[in-house]
Amino acid sequence: MATTVTNGTLVVTIKEELTLNGKQQGGTIIKSIAACDEVYKRIITLTADTSHDVASFAGTPGAACEFDTDLIQYIRVTNLDDTTDLVVTYGGSTSAAQVVPAGCSSMLFRKGVKGATSDAAQTSGNDIASLYLRSSAAIDVELMIVST
């Protein structure tokens, strides 16, 4: 079967607007990622106080919700709740976790994260192997993964 999917370009825009003393202090960052041909997007309802393994990453994916580590270009996790924080953990040989407040997002471009047990700066990243989500209450989360 020949594919009928035409590659597209993902454009991610981050826009900050802040006026202090009549002067604009914000900015706009635009990142374009060409040749995208796979997107996975869904809304997930999390159970309170439960770790949810929502995606896995491998060199040769085979299972459902498993993605090719080398092809990942963009991951966005958005907390759709209006009061409760979300903890996003990018797991691998080292893991990194981020608290995502209600109504906010975590974005990862490409595949590397680095965690540490000290406050020293990290110099490189490791490939992610899993994406875990956890919250203290039942909340909805939007997940988007884009690959080339």
Provide a compact summary of the structure.
This protein is mostly beta strands. It contains no helices and 14 strands. Helix content is 0%, strand content 59%.
Name the overall outline: globular
Helical content class: under 10%
Q: What portion of the residues fall into strands of 2 or more residues?
A: over 45%
Unreliable stretches? none
Please give the largest β-sheet: 6 strands, mixed
- Gyration radius (Cα, Å) is 17 Å
What is the distance, rounded to the nearest whole angstrom, between the alpha carbons of the first and last residues?
A: 19 Å
- The DSSP helix count reads 0
Please trace the helix and strand order, writing H or E for each element: EEEEEEEEEEEEEE
What's the mean pLDDT score? 91
Give me the count of strands: 14
Structural class: mainly beta
Descriptive account of the structure:
The protein has strands at residues 8-16, 19-20, 23-24, 27-36, 38-46, 52-58, 66-68, 72-79, 86-92, 96-100, 105-109, 112-113, 126-134, 139-147. The strands form 4 sheets. Strands 6, 7, 9, 10, 12 and 13 form a 6-stranded mixed beta sheet that branches. It has a 4-stranded antiparallel beta sheet with strand order 5-14-8-11, with no helix packed on it. The protein is mainly β. It is built from no helices and 14 strands. A hairpin with a 2-residue loop joins strand 2 and strand 3.
